[in-house]
Amino acid sequence: MLKHNLVVYCDGGARGNPGPAAVGVVIFNGEGNLRDKCGKYIGKTTNNVAEYEGVVTAFGIILDLKDINPKKTDLTFNLDSSLVVNQLNGLYKIKKGHLRDLLFKIRHFEQNFPKVSYNLIPREKNTEADFLVNQALDNYERTS
Fold first, then answer.
1. Which domain holds residue 102?
2. How far from the centroid of its chain's Cα atoms is residue 54's Cα?
3. 5: left (phi > 0), else alpha (psi -120 to 50), else beta?
4. First CA to last CA distance, the chain
5. Could you tell me the CATH number of the domain that includes residue 134?
6. Residues 6+ apart with CB under 8 A from 13
7. What is the pLDDT of residues 70-104, one digit of tens each?
């Protein structure tokens, strides 16, 4: 089986902090072709939790891709949250227990893949994931 590369754009946001929150995930293969995307409401929480949940959601989607062998797939995550990227890269400590729990969940997912990297990108390069967050929040507000 060939080695795969996936490029993941993810975002999370809450309207109010805490408030109604959602995540957005867009996944491309190494050639830049769309593999999957998802926007979903995740309940009432903070922006930081929503950002972490975006990464967790992305891992879940990737592990469900039937034609991908995780042991032969490198992942590149692109996020616009400086705090979350620096925490995931081990540059900042995580003091809050609930965020540490999400980090442990992410570290568990990472063990399935040979290489996982987290990059900070400007918001204007994360517009599709951001759009999915806002779309999920708009849909939630319309139906609640």
1. 4-143
2. 3
3. beta
4. 46
5. 3.30.420.10
6. 21, 22, 47, 50, 51, 130, 133, 134, 137
7. 999 999 999 999 999 999 999 999 999 999 999 99
Count the residues in the chain: 144
* H/E run at residue 58: helix 47-64
38 C-beta neighbours (distance < 10 Å), count:
18
Domains in the chain, number = 1
| Residue 100: Cβ within 10 Å count | 13
Provide CB contacts within 8 A for 64, sequence distance 6+: none
Mean of all residue pLDDT scores within the chain:
96
Pick from 85, 125, 133: which is nearest to 106 by CA? 85
